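Hi U.,

Before I forget, here's the chain from the pilot set. I'm dumping it here mostly so it's searchable later in email.
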Amino acid sequence: TAGVVTFESGAGASSPGTNPFVTDQFLADIADAAGQYNIVIPYFHMGVEYLGVPPSWAIAAAHGAIDAGATMVVTNHPHVIQGMEIYGGKPIIYSVGNFVFDQMFSVDTRQGLILEITVQGSRVVGIRTRGIEIEDFHQPRLMSGGEQAAIMDRFWRSTDRTAAGVAF
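Structure:
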C-alpha cells in the first residue's frame, strides 16, 4: 500500500489548506504514515520561485523526510525544473516544474516533468520521466524526443549543482 502526504505553508488553525509545513509536525506525520504503508511519498510545496537549484533549507527538509521514513520525496513550487539526489539510498526529486499553469513568460516556466515511479515491496526501483510543455495557457503537451533531451539536460545539470553543494 502507498501513502502520499502533502505539505504547504498555507494551512493554519483558522485557515483552510493542506498540512502545514512545520518541521516537527511533518516529520511526525511521515513517521506515522511509514508505520501504516509500505510506500510513503511526501509531496512538498516548497522552494524558491524560479531558482534552478533547491535552497539549503529545502534540502534539509527533504533529508529529514527520508530520515523519518519516506520512501522518496517529490517537491514543487519553484515553477522550474530542478534536479534530484539520492539520499540514504532513496530518491529526492526537488522540483517537477509546472504542469497546468498560466506562466507563459519563459521556456523554463512552461515546462515540467511527469514521473512514473516503479516500486517493489517498499523500495523505489525505477523512475521514468516524461517532459511536458504547456501550450496556450494550461494545456500540457508531451514533449518529443529532442525536446525531452533538452529538458533532461537541464535536470541533470541542476542535479550536478545540487550534489556539488551549490544551494542557496
